Amino acid sequence: MQLGIHLPHAGEQARPELIRRRAIRAEELGLDDVWVSEHIIVPRATFPRSPLFYDPVLSLTWTAAVTKRVRLGTSVLVLPMRHPLPLAKELATLQNFSEGRLILGAGVGWLEPEFAALGVPFHERGRRTDEGIAMMRAVWTQDPVTFHSSYIPAEISEMTMSPPPVRPIPIWFGARSEAAFRRTVRIGDGWHGSQLTRIRLHQLSRVCAANARSRSLQSRCARTGTARTRANCASGWPLTRRSSST
Q1: How confident is the model at residue 229 (pLDDT cuts 50, 70, 90)?
Q2: For residues 38, 43, 44 and 50, what is the CA-based torsion angle, rounded to 10 degrees?
Q3: I want to staple 219 with a disulfide (CB 3.0 to 4.6 A). Which of 94, 118, 142, 231 is the partner?
Q4: Contact 10, 50 (CB under 8 A)
Q5: Structural domains counted in the chain
Q6: Mean of the pLDDT values across residues 205-234?
């Protein structure tokens, strides 16, 4: 069992000093990881909670500066809202500054007005996510790198992005849809689920078996203050769940 917390970087009480104190306390208590989430811009009249969100990458950089051991996760970063190249640079920098503690929890997003404000096609978000991840992995691992994109504006031919991450950045996919499950099995390093019933967990197991792959996937429950879960998802393996209340 591994435990983590969501840092207070969002909501009416969020402030830098509180983020710092909670991160330090999490490390002192022996917790395994700390997490942040994301919205860039939201419709003020209809957004269901406080619109205050500090930037997740900068919040984790702030956290990395005051901790030494806890892993640093995004829960989740909405990949298709961002261009992959500056994001790849930011994430590689954070991975190196934190000495390899980053977990990239990734999602495709759900708030259509936010995509509209950023000029990103909402109905292409799945394809842009897949292509964006492929682009980031390419610039992190290839030198020189050439990458041909179909959905994201980019011309990358015999170029370099340096420095690369000090170690590979694991990508865990969030969300609860069948498409998210398939994406996790196809290109993810882990699954970052939340608020799921046992029935949905068994559905994930079936998707894993149907898309059999000889890799083990880690699953984590992202609900603040709850126990995390681990699961193996590979060729024909059953999904196992271990959790307890805190």
Answers
A1: very low
A2: -20
A3: 231
A4: yes
A5: 2
A6: 47
Question: How many helices and strands, by DSSP H and E, does the chain display?
Answer: 7, 10
| Residue 37 burial class via C-beta count within 10 angstroms: exposed 0-12, middle 13-18, buried 19 and up | buried
**pTM assigned to the model:** 0.84
Does residue 152 lie in a domain region? yes
Distance, in Å, from the CA atom of 103 to the CA atom of 101, rounded to the nearest integer, reads 7
- Asked if 196 and 221 count as a contact pair (C-beta separation under 8 A), the reply is yes
- 105 forms beta bridges with 172
Q: Which domain holds residue 216?
A: 180-246
In SS3 terms, 74-96 reads as ECCEEHHHCCHHHHHHHHHHHHH
Q: Are residues 157 and 238 in the same domain?
A: no
Closest CA to 177 of 232, 108, 74: 108
Mean pLDDT of 93-121: 97
